[in-house]
Amino acid sequence: xxxxxxxxxxxxIPTLLILIGVAFFLIRAAPGGPFSRERNLLPExxxxxxxxxxxxxxxxQQFGRYLWGLxxxxxxxxxxxRDYTVTxxxxxxxxxxxxxxxxxxxxxxxVGVTAGxxxxxxxxxxxxxxVMAVSMTGISIPNFVMAPLLVLVFAVNLRWLPAGGLGDGxxxxxxxxxTALALPQIAYLARLTRGSMIEVLRSNFVRTARAQGLPTWQxxxxxxxxxxxxxxxxxxxxxxxxxxxGSVVIEQxxxxxxxxxxxxxxxxxxxxxxxxxxVVFYGVLIIAFNFLVDLAYAWLDPKVRNR
Length: 307
Prior knowledge:
Blueprint: H1 2-29, H2 43-52, H3 59-71, H4 86-121, H5 126-140, H6 143-157, H7 172-201, H8 204-211, H9 216-228, H10 230-245, H11 248-253, H12 259-268, H13 272-300
């Protein structure tokens, strides 16, 4: 297990370097610059700003300077939020995204795996068709449609929940954004669990367990659930990173000051360091969660360790 873990860690380093390099040069290839939209900006002032932020240097030199800063956990200063560094903005926005995302992924995991398992046990029944129909609907309807519908129904018409914002920090303010984030993940997890569970239930070791007279719940919990969760675990890695990092649409609709807001603002204003900081932070999260998924996969299926 230790050698498997070391191999996965070493493989993550070049992946992260490639991500940083591609993101850095793609952002610089976009037309315009962080100060090109300033009104009535004299060429001399723009040249001084470029020199102050080292934007007048060759690209390879800027890239080397950025990598050196990353080695010291420094994402650099923000070009638009002049009083803040990118690290401070990430620290400010990430707790909001983390709260929404972590609750949403836990809800999605509990509801999706449960619904998919029941659908597999009652294959071709009304429950099975209902779960699959709801799942397809959840996958087909994007967040930017579902979120306003939730606001319209539960906040505007019924007035049960607040429409957005942080409010007083109570759980009522989290219900709608968490629901909007969790619904697509519930749909995906339900479909994955159902398909995997049906395949596992038809395997020989499950038939043997049933032939021994074990109760259905013991067959599911002790024998079928663990191998059936393998595709779910594989999906959870990037899905968790995506949800926790924050959905841009959800945070904008519900006025949540998370990472999504900073990413959109940075992209519109050509704030190179802010966009790079969010992209690198997001990439690190994806790599970290995929690494955890690899470890969980190896625990669930010991044959993976020897590959």
